[in-house]
Amino acid sequence: MKRNCSLSDISDGRLYNSNDMVKADCLECKGCSACCKGMGNSIVLDPLDIYRLCTGLGTDFNGLLVSAIELNVVDGIILPNLKMSGIEEKCVFLNEEGRCSIHPFRPGICRMFPLGRYYENGSYKYFLQVNECRNKNRAKIKVSKWIDTDDLKKYENYINDWHYFLVDVQEKIMLSQENDTYIKNINMYILNTFFVSDYKEEFYIEFDRRLMEAKNTLLK
Predict the structure, then answer these.
(1) In the list 70, 105, 155, 197, which could disulfide-bond 56, CB 3.0-4.6 Å?
(2) How far is residue 96's CA from residue 81's CA, in Å, rounded to a whole number?
């Protein structure tokens, strides 16, 4: 999800690599769950997020749609996001104690918070969002440890590939001169290819194959 703002207004002015230390450790949040409430449709999910949720919960994409996720348009593309519920508009996976019930397989945006990604010149770095987390006494931690993801290099390459693929698709949609049928077909293809269809092999291997096929189908 693109943010139309200056990096200097929302960060500490630095860009971080995975080996850098950053003041992001919320020290187990100490009872705070503010970042899990009132987020609207901003917790956008990528294919790995859906794969992890399906695997962790023992369900499939359609099962998640029943109560856990919803579909919304993000920069012209229909993508899934975590659902908020109730008067407090809290994440559906936040338990009565205010803790994340899916922490081992939580989405990538949740893993990063309060970090964000800054994309530039075909790659990205991390930045610290200084106005998002209510805990002002955070500790320093290495970015890679904070993100807490296996095969971090593969993960970062995957995130980069997914982002720039969506950027290319968005440009294609913009050039379509508002052809509703064409745009609908693109969105259905992306949803079915990357989210609805089960991953039978190792995720990154199968994702790479699907991505290559999608580029050949949508971007040529």
Answers:
(1) 105
(2) 22
